[in-house]
Each structure stands twice: as structure tokens, then as C-alpha cells.
Design goal:
Number of helices: 0
Order of helices and strands: EEEEEEEEEEE
Structural class: mainly beta
Number of strands: 11
Helix content: under 10%
Distance between the termini: 40 Å
Shape: globular
Radius of gyration: 13 Å
Length: 114
């Protein structure tokens, strides 16, 4: 059975940092593209960043560019989202998704207090 499991969320003060992890089980990330999305209360889910594990290319939306960094450790079958200089508007449930299988993780809550 295949799974994506996010971890690393929590409560952090504005200006702080959090690193989210997305671990895959049951399949290998090596040739896949993985994305991070977030959904704030009352808002639609939006894409944040993605990485192509085959060539290492990445994309990050302008609203978080320079503050969020996506990376991958294929030996651990894990994709990370390093989030720095967090703002209250970053508060959301963060999800990872594998674009090949359309598999979603269960999400992890990040709450940024002002």
C-alpha cells in the first residue's frame, strides 16, 4: 500500500521557521514530481512549491519565494519544505502530493502567531 505522510507542523511565532517533511512509503520518489500545497481556513487549496526528483528542478510561488525552500532526499524517500520568516498568513494545513499517482498526504497544520 502506498502512502504519503506529512510531519513537522506546529505552532510558531511570526518570523520563526518550520521544516515540513513528506515521506513516501510503498513507492520510490526517485523519478516523481512532488508538490506542497496549503489550505487556509475558508480558502481554496493552493500550490506552494514543487520539485522534480528526476532532474532536481523546482518551482515556488511568488508569495513565498525567498522564504520557503523545497528539497528532496531520495535516499530517505522524503521531500522537505523549509519555511523561514513565517507570517500569520502562512497559517494553513499543508499537504504534499505526488503528481504521478495523484496521491495526497493527510496534511499537517502550521499555525503562525503574530
Amino acid at each position: 500500500e502506498v502512502h504519503l505522510v506529512e510531519s513537522g507542523g506546529g505552532l510558531v511565532q511570526a518570523g520563526g521557521s518550520v521544516r515540513l517533511s513528506c515521506a513516501a512509503s510503498g513507492f520510490s520518489f526517485d523519478d516523481y514530481s512532488i508538490g506542497w500545497f496549503r489550505q487556509a481556513p475558508g480558502k481554496e487549496r493552493e500550490g506552494v512549491s514543487c520539485i522534480n526528483n528526476k532532474d532536481g528542478s523546482t518551482f515556488t510561488v511568488d508569495s513565498v519565494k525567498g522564504r520557503f525552500t523545497i528539497s528532496s532526499d531520495n535516499s530517505k524517500n522524503t521531500v522537505y519544505l523549509q519555511m523561514d520568516n513565517l507570517k500569520p498568513e502562512d497559517t494553513a494545513v499543508y499537504y504534499c502530493k505526488d503528481f504521478t499517482t495523484n496521491l495526497w498526504g493527510q496534511g499537517t497544520q502550521v499555525t503562525v502567531s503574530s
